[in-house]
Amino acid sequence: MIHVIATVDLAAGTRDAFLAEFHKVMPLVRAEQGCLAYGPCVDAGTCTPSQSKVGPDRVTIVEQWESVDALKAHAVAPQMKTYRADVKDFVRGMDPRVLSNIGEALSRACRCRSTAAVGAYRSCMARYVRPDTQGRPIGNFTIIADFDQSIS
Predict the structure, then answer these.
(1) Which fold, 2-97?
(2) In the chain, where the domains are located
(3) Tens digit of pLDDT for each residue in 76-101?
(4) What is the DSSP string of the chain?
(5) pTM
């Protein structure tokens, strides 16, 4: 499974207009082959001290796809070409993060039987995952898909 967290920077005061266009394309995207989830998010009013707010001129898009191939097909789908044209005057920048579950990356590294790939994965795990007292990872961790692709 592939996760996408994309932060979209918008021109001042255009968030409502951007979201109106987003909501038009959303049902079409959700009907695409391999789409598991697709939707926009804005700051929640939690008042939690640790919350980092994205602000009124940003939207975070959260997506889940069955595979990288499904995500690639989504990127070139006709409705996305139309959508990009419709929102181009609102969007000032975008920061997409494409992620996959760490367990899936290890599975791919082991299947490819590459000692270097498995070693790179373990090195990454040692830096970013805190093990419990038996050396097992704690929690549900993700890594950036670029690393995942380098071992598949």
Answers:
(1) Alpha-Beta Plaits (3.30.70)
(2) 2-97, 101-150
(3) 999 999 999 999 999 999 999 999 88
(4) -EEEEEEEEE-TT-HHHHHHHHHHHHHHHHTSTTEEEEEEE-------TT-----TTEEEEEEEES-HHHHHHHHT-HHHHHHHHHHTTTEEEEEEEEEEEHHHHHHHHHHTT-HHHHHHHHHHHHHH--B-TTSPBPS--EEEHHHHHHT-
(5) 0.67
Type of residue at 52 = S
Q: Token digits for 88?
A: 């181009």
CA 43 centroid distance within chain: 17
- pLDDT reported for residue 10: 97
Asked whether the beta carbons of 1 and 66 are under 8 A apart, the reply is yes
**What are residue 62's phi and psi, to 5 degrees?**
-110, 125
Sites in the chain below the pLDDT cut of 70: 103-152
Cα 141 from Cα 50, distance rounded (Å)? 20
Give CA angle at 35 (32, 36), nearest 5°: 145
Which pairing describes strands 58-65 and 142-144: parallel, antiparallel, or unpaired?
unpaired
Amino acid type, 106: L
**What are 128's two structure tokens?**
């970013």
